[in-house]
Amino acid sequence: MKVIYGGTFDPVHHGHLRLAVELRELLAVPQLSLVPCHIPPHRASPGAGSEDRLGLLRLAVAGEPGLVVDDRELSRGGASYSAETLRQLRALIGPDEPLVMVMGTDAFAGFDRWRDWQSIPELAHVLVVARPGEGLNPDGIPAGLLRTRGCRSVNELRSAPCGLFLYQHLPLLDISATAIRDRIREGRSPRYLLPDSVWQEIRQRGLYECPVHDDR
Ligand code: ATP
Q: Ligand 1 centre and the CA of 213: distance in Å?
């Protein structure tokens, strides 16, 4: 089974990293791939460039062999469409291996606005992680997919290469990249919300409008 967890990672934080560890254990896979997007089609431009976000993500997972970074969306260039990423991965792993794409309810709420979203279940399973305060419109297409194509267990995901939706509760940390960016811009400390190595690199590169000569 191959598992990918995509995001802007602007910047990566302990909320993302803890979730990645929980997912790896839940799905019992040796490795989980974190896939930073290059240009997100459905949200404002990130606070940091894709190469910087990729560099921070690599620093964050250094020394954790269970988490790997897949930079294919940067290499591909252009807007980062998940359907295209999944198509590339499916071609790599062949037709039979289960492929799972993970996202939080906030991301899944806009699933039916993604380019070519109908092809996604033909390529992969979708694992939706419940995020507090992020409900789905019960009349919307995403909630409908959970009802009509939903499954109840990880074992079911193993039984087919693609096509199922699993809604999963996991322990989550209440951390968002937006709150981290705000703190940095306002001259407040983001320490303990993200790895020290990442925070150090942000200061060194002066990312997120980090005040110069910052000695936080
Ligand atoms: P922003 O605040 O800029 O929107 P974010 O912290 O939500 O960023 P993203 O890179 O947009 O991070 O999120 C990537 C994926 O990680 C999404 O599917 C999102 O639901 C999930 N995610 C973000 N923060 C957390 C968290 N604290 N715990 C679990 N999942 C998270």
A: 29
